[in-house]
Design brief:
Shape: elongated
Pfam family, one: LEA_2
Low-confidence stretches: 239-244
Oligomer: single chain
Subcellular location: Membrane
GO cellular component, one term: plasmodesma
Number of helices: 2
CATH topology of the largest domain: Immunoglobulin-like
Main location: membrane
Protein name: Late embryogenesis abundant protein LEA-2 subgroup domain-containing protein
Helix content: 25-40%
Length: about 240
Amino acid sequence: MSHLNGAYYGPSVPPPKSYHRPSRGGRDGCCCGCLSCFCGCIFDCILGLICKILTTILIIVAILGFLFWFIVRPNVLKFHVTDASLTRFDYTTNNTLHYDLALNVSIRNPNRRVGVYYDHIEAHALYQDVLFGNQTLGPFFQHHKNTTFVNPLFKGQRVTPLAGNQVEVFDKEKGSGVYTIDLKLFMVVRFKFLLFKSASVKPKIRCALHVPLKSRNATTTISPDAAFQPTECGWDYGKKWWIH
């Protein structure tokens, strides 16, 4: 039995092989990865198509806008108060303002190819932001390259409460014979180009006037140095100036 206790010099015995069935997780991961890649490709394609469509629309709109501007060459309407006659402007102790004010307003349409429908014009007269008179002017159509005159007239009396500092301003202007009066125009207009008419828009115009008080015969001013100066009106884009 001594040969059983000796060293063994034969070939090494390999370890037994371990057999196991591969799980399906690897194939599922591959499928999920492919699906994600496919979905990403579709999303990129859709996003790229949307960007191209939007870019095309913007280019078309820009071209049409440029062509419209090049053909029509639109210009803003211009308003001026060319003359003003104030023959009465008295403020009594019972907060009543007696007034007689006549204005001459020019409206210039400088456009070559655009006419204007004035469907409604409402003229407001204010003193220190307090409304004292209003008048509605009749509708009319203004052709291109045309100047039209309108003549709002404010005459009568109205309770016009003024604060203490406003009364002080009135007394000061009474001494000088020149009053600061605002004319504000609320309009509803439409524009006509060839056979096309636009929707109604509502521009607002403000004219800051310095009107001298005239004598009753309306030929001379009470202050010999005072004279009304033609005044350009401006477009009012804010609501804080407007009482409507």
